[in-house]
């Protein structure tokens, strides 16, 4: 990502801004001098002006010896690392979640660089509304009726279709495509090559042919959604395809038309979800998982990598599993057998005990 000249902060200023950016949910307590900091570094290589954070006990010794101006760790870890005498050089920030502090603070230390305004080589149609603080770079295309919010950035070569809406502080990377009617909340990130609002895979079978069904819904993203490079999210057939607030999508994911993805979900690369499937809040989907259409995955569920999901019950669960491809009927028989394996194992153990008892009885009678 292109960045401005990296800013510096007093530790107290950084704490205050992290508190604000986390909506008051993450606070920290400074112990020692209010030092000036500019970057994060590993504890073993940090020096003056650097910060180091601890989340893994394996790095406790490196943290203890670190020359960082500011070290960040949980209060319960402080004495374990520095002993009763405490840290004798530099300052300390005690924080409930050092890794989250690192994430929020890094956003402040590495702001997105952009010059507000419309580049003369951008193509903006009459009727588009672009906030004066937004940036539209060279060769970007913004069609009529589109609206781009405050401090949003549309990078070179990106396409924003008719009546699309981009919320405040969104970042649209080069060559991303937002088709007509696509809606983004605030602070969304769309990485290069992603396509939002392309036609869903909708065709009606008719006498051996496939008849296209026009896709007239939209793709709608909530606030703070991130979409990875070359990920595609189809527009709805009639209703909208929706991705909830705070959800993070990795590269090369496919979401089918009319999918409903909940809030604060995370999906790794190459996940494929067929149309009209609902995924509840806080779900975690591993890389290359394949999920059938027209099912509901409850909130809090997890799907392992390379796992095929063809159905789900009413309760949240963690599911992982795969086996090699088979002929259709063999697959059905194998799948049915696999679901019975726990009971079959119990039955087998019971039979083994019975056989052992019979053998013992026979040996006793023979004796």
TrEMBL record:
Family according to the record: Belongs to the transferase hexapeptide repeat family. LpxD subfamily.
Pfam annotation, one family: Hexapep
UniProt keyword annotations, A-Z: Acyltransferase, Lipid A biosynthesis, Lipid biosynthesis, Lipid metabolism, Repeat, Transferase
NCBIfam families, per database record: lipid_A_lpxD (TIGR01853), PRK00892.1 (NF002060)
Catalytic machinery residues: 257
Keyword Hydrolase tagged: no
Species: Sutterella megalosphaeroides
Recorded metabolic or biological pathway in which this protein acts: Bacterial outer membrane biogenesis; LPS lipid A biosynthesis
Molecular function GO labels: N-acyltransferase activity; UDP-3-O-[(3R)-3-hydroxyacyl]-glucosamine N-acyltransferase activity
GO biological process assignments: lipid A biosynthetic process
Function as written in the Swiss-Prot or TrEMBL entry: Catalyzes the N-acylation of UDP-3-O-acylglucosamine using 3-hydroxyacyl-ACP as the acyl donor. Is involved in the biosynthesis of lipid A, a phosphorylated glycolipid that anchors the lipopolysaccharide to the outer membrane of the cell.
GO cellular component: membrane
EC number(s) stated in the UniProt entry for this protein: 2.3.1.191
Complexes and interactors: Homotrimer.
Domain (UDP-3-O-[3-hydroxymyristoyl] glucosamine N-acyltransferase non-repeat region): residue spans on this chain: 34-108
The name this protein goes by in its record: UDP-3-O-acylglucosamine N-acyltransferase
Catalytic activity annotation: a UDP-3-O-[(3R)-3-hydroxyacyl]-alpha-D-glucosamine + a (3R)-hydroxyacyl-[ACP] = a UDP-2-N,3-O-bis[(3R)-3-hydroxyacyl]-alpha-D-glucosamine + holo-[ACP] + H(+)
């Amino acid at each position: 990502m292109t960045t401005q000249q990296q800013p510096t902060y007093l530790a107290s200023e950084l704490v205050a801004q992290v508190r604000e950016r986390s909506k008051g949910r993450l606070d920290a307590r400074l112990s020692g001098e209010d030092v000036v900091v500019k970057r994060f570094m590993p504890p073993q290589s940090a020096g003056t002006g650097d910060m180091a954070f601890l989340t893994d006990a394996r790095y406790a010794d490196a943290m203890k010896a670190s020359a960082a101006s500011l070290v960040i760790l949980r209060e319960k870890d402080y004495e374990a690392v520095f002993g009763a005498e405490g840290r004798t050089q530099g300052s300390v920030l005690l924080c409930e979640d050092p890794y989250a502090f690192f994430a929020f603070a890094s956003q402040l230390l590495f702001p997105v660089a952009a010059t507000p305004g419309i580049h003369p080589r951008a193509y903006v149609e009459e009727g588009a509304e672009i906030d004066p603080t937004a940036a539209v770079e060279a060769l970007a295309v913004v069609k009529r009726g589109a609206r781009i919010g405050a401090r949003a950035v549309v990078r070179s070569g990106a396409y924003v279709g008719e009546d699309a809406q981009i919320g405040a502080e969104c970042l649209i990377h080069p060559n991303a495509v937002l088709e007509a009617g696509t809606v983004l909340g605030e602070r969304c990130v769309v990485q290069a090559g992603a396509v939002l609002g392309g036609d869903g895979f909708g065709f009606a079978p008719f006498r051996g042919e496939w008849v296209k069904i026009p896709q007239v819904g939209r793709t709608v993203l909530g606030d703070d959604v991130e979409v990875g490079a070359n990920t595609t999210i189809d527009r709805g057939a009639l209703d909208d395809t929706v991705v909830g607030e705070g959800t993070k999508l990795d590269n090369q994911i496919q979401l089918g038309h009319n999918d409903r993805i909940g809030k604060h979900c995370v999906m790794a690369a190459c996940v494929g979800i067929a149309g009209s499937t609902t995924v509840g809040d806080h779900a975690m989907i591993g890389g290359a998982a394949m999920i059938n259409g027209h099912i509901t995955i409850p909130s809090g569920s997890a799907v392992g990598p390379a796992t095929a999901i063809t159905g789900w019950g009413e309760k949240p669960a963690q599911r992982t599993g795969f086996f090699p491809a088979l002929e259709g009927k063999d697959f059905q028989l194998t799948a049915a057998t696999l679901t019975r394996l726990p009971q079959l194992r119990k039955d087998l153990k019971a039979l083994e005990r019975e056989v052992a008892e019979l053998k013992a009885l026979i040996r006793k009678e023979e004796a």
